[in-house]
Fold this protein.
Amino acid sequence: MDAPRISIVTPSLNQAEFLEAALESIHSQDYPNLEHIIIDGGSTDGSLAVLERWAPKLAFLQSRPDGGQTDALIQGFARATGEILAWLNADDLLEPGALAEVAVFFSDHPADRFVFGDSCWIDRMGRIARQKREMPFVRFIWLRTYDYIPQPSAFWKR
């Protein structure tokens, strides 16, 4: 199986405290076809120093005032070229092996367009504060009624 390109957009504004861990969680995936785009809203807290260290691994980095998270995501996805898309906020993490697992899932289920998985909330001390487990099936009404899909674990096809 050829590894499909996975594009991840990371919107950020003044997230220096969390950026290093988020970037490490993405770029330690050992996934061969990753495109990572960061749209920073003009951070003033030291985020740029972190981002500049990681710049060689990024497909695109922009730091300037923008219209907020939605605007940053629109800008980032407009640049994305991947077959599979996702966004990871600057204070979120990917589990090791997540990108390979997503690629295998879409390869094994070519008709599926969207996938999401388990997620957990981590406090500032690095402890798991809450977990949300994937259900073996999801009823459509749940998707429309509840905040059921954990955004950091959501991936979709172009």
